[in-house]
């Protein structure tokens, strides 16, 4: 049976305990930059709690950076000594350069079986892809077949984000339509979604409660089956995440719904008190 390594980046919120228990899973951290001198590795040097405490006390907010080609290539060079195939599952290429750096690194090892898969999402959706890839790899499935399954999952994946303030997404340029930036001035609560890997404005409402209800309503309109999965993610907003989970459990009482915390890198762009709901049909 061919030995396969699954690699992902730090925005996939895999959790340190999960990573430690999966011997064939590897992660590459993105970076958080406070100016030119202060650099933190996402999820390693700075926890989400530490990150939000830090930004609450500063005037100039941080930026983010994808992993360097050198860092990814260094990992690939180590993995090809032990593995027959490598699959790298990344954050959407339309909001980060992480996918492209993965391709550049893989192209320097063209004689090796290394595939880079663009999730076109991030966070808990990306996490579900990684979990599926790990399961299939353990069953002896080749990387090409794993990618076919992930592409099918990707077509049936949705994620909706409710952010408390668009200042952060507007500042970092991650919202694809400028109407959302105007919304920040109007003090509305935007509902955002991923479309073809871009973050787009879905709807604007006046309060967080109405935004949460709208997202739950969207989910309720989807025809989920027994194998469908639902996950919730938050950035410094656990209380609201729990409220959303309880509302979803009313319409899907049979589903086990996990809540994960978004990585600090994602928190740079969303700001605090962000809640996301994701599902794969």
Protein model, in words:
The protein is of the alpha/beta class. The protein folds into 2 domains: 4-30 and 66-155, Dihydroxyacetone kinase, domain 1 (Rossmann fold); 157-280, 2-Layer Sandwich (Hypothetical Protein Tm841, Chain: A,domain 3). Helix content is 40%, strand content 26%. The protein has 11 helices and 13 strands. The chain has a 6-stranded mixed sheet with strand order 10-9-8-13-11-12, sandwiched between helices. Strands 2-1-6-7 form a 4-stranded parallel sheet, with helices on both faces. Helix 5 (123-138) runs antiparallel to helix 6. The mean pLDDT is 92.
What's the topology here?
Blueprint: E1 4-9, H1 16-21, E2 25-28, E3 31-34, E4 38-41, H2 48-55, E5 63-65, H3 69-79, E6 85-90, H4 98-107, E7 113-118, H5 123-138, H6 143-155, E8 157-162, H7 167-172, H8 179-185, E9 189-195, E10 198-205, H9 208-221, E11 229-235, H10 238-251, E12 258-261, H11 264-270, E13 274-280
Parallel strand pairs: 1-2, 1-6, 6-7, 11-12
Antiparallel strand pairs: 3-4, 3-5, 8-9, 8-13, 9-10, 11-13
Helix pairs in contact: 3-4, 5-6, 9-10
């Amino acid at each position: 049976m061919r030995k396969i390594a699954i690699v992902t980046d730090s925005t996939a919120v895999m959790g340190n305990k999960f990573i430690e228990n999966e011997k064939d899973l590897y992660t590459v951290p993105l970076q958080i930059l406070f100016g030119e001198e202060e650099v933190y590795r996402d999820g390693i040097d700075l926890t989400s709690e530490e990150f939000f405490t830090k930004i609450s006390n500063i005037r100039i907010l941080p930026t983010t950076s994808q992993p360097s080609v050198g860092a990814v290539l260094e990992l690939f060079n180590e993995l090809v000594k032990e593995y027959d195939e490598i699959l790298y599952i990344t954050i959407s290429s339309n909001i980060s350069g992480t996918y492209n750096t993965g391709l550049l690194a893989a192209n320097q090892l063209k004689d090796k079986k290394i595939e880079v898969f663009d999730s076109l999402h991030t966070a808990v959706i990306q996490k579900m892809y990684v979990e599926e890839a790990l399961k299939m790899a353990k069953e002896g499935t080749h990387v090409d077949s794993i990618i076919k399954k992930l592409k099918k999952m990707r077509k049936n994946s949705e994620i909706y984000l409710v952010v408390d303030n668009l200042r952060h997404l507007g500042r970092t340029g991650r919202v694809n339509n400028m109407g959302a930036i105007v919304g920040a001035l109007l003090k509305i609560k935007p509902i955002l979604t991923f479309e073809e890997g871009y973050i787009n404005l879905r709807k604007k409402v006046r309060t967080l409660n109405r935004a949460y209800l709208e997202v739950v309503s969207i989910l309720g309109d989807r025809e989920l089956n027994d194998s469908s999965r639902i996950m919730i993610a938050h950035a410094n907003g656990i209380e609201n995440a729990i409220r959303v989970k309880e509302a979803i459990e009313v319409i899907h009482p049979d589903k086990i719904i996990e809540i994960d915390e978004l990585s600090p890198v994602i928190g740079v762009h969303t700001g605090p008190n962000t809640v996301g709901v994701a599902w794969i049909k």
